[in-house]
Amino acid sequence: MPTHEADAVERWAAQLAGWAIPPEILAGAPEPPWGFDPAEFAVDASGPVETASSAVEREVLPLDGSVLDVGSGGGRGSLVLAPPAGLIRAVDESGAMLALVERTAEDRGIAVAIHQGRWPDVAGSVPPADLVVCHHVVYNAPDIVPFLVALTDHARLAVVVELTSAHPMTGWRDAWRHFWGLERPPGPTADELVAIVRQLGWSAETWRRRRSLEDLLFLDPERAVRSTRRRLCLPVERTDEVADYLRDHPLQWPSEVVTVRWPGQERH
Predict the structure, then answer these.
(1) Burial of 105 (0-12, 13-18, 19+ CB in 10 A)
(2) What is the pLDDT of residues 95-139, one digit of tens each?
(3) In this structure, how many other beta carbons lie within 10 angstroms of the beta carbon of residue 100?
(4) How is domain 3-267 classified at the architecture level of CATH?
């Protein structure tokens, strides 16, 4: 691997490592700071909603084609593609998330296959697809090269990765400094991911969409307080202190969603 490529990959891994919570803070956390409620990832009751990347994905997806959704959550990134997709394959570590995908697909008559496990550890047991999609997952992949290589190896026509312009936890950088005296990294960023993709020899195209107010999290002040307290491992007794801080320091989220697309195996 050329030096400049290795440097980009090392920067990606180092910045993600910089978001690790020190063991002594984690040990005192009243609840898991990284947990998610699967219900928050369910497809809306009215049906799958277009994502920032749906149009870009449909451009390369043939009628009755197959989609592999890596880190599927409840299926918001892929179920909206059926049709034209004839089959959705969902990969996720969470059985609860995959159960959501199955229920939604059954309700809407969508053919689906599920594969539980961590990517790329389970890649060897997952068949390829016409299109591979991966929405809001890559910031959880410190070993980014094998992750991306496995995505590409499984895509016949294209890979589409969707992510925020910067790591979503950057909204809490100032709060970590205030409550714990910890400096957090400014990234990684979508631009750094694109650089790595191109350095791996793939021709990456990018699209950017400004996030609407509806897309931005925690417009509800009470939810912002709860989430901040959980993310920062603070006890419930500090709720008022967190609320006071957030009134003077509103959370600043990455303002854009970035779509990155590159060719699959049949188009290289």
Answers:
(1) buried
(2) 999 999 999 999 889 999 999 999 999 999 999 999 999 999 999
(3) 24
(4) 3-Layer(aba) Sandwich (3.40)
Which residues fall within 8 angstroms of residue 135, CB to CB, at 6 or more apart?
51, 53, 69, 71, 73, 76, 77, 161, 162, 163
Residue 37 to residues 12, 32, 73, 253: CA-CA distances in angstroms? 27, 12, 11, 20
The model's pTM is 0.90
pLDDT in tens, 207-255: 999 876 555 555 678 888 998 999 999 999 999 999 999 999 988 888 8
Give the residue extent of every domain in the chain.
3-267
Give me the phi and psi of 140, to 5 degrees please.
-100, 10
DSSP for 219-245, written as a single string: -SHHHHHHHHHHHTT--GGGHHHHHHH
Count of C-beta atoms within a 10 Å radius of residue 149: 14
CA proximity to 42, closest of 100, 105, 92: 100
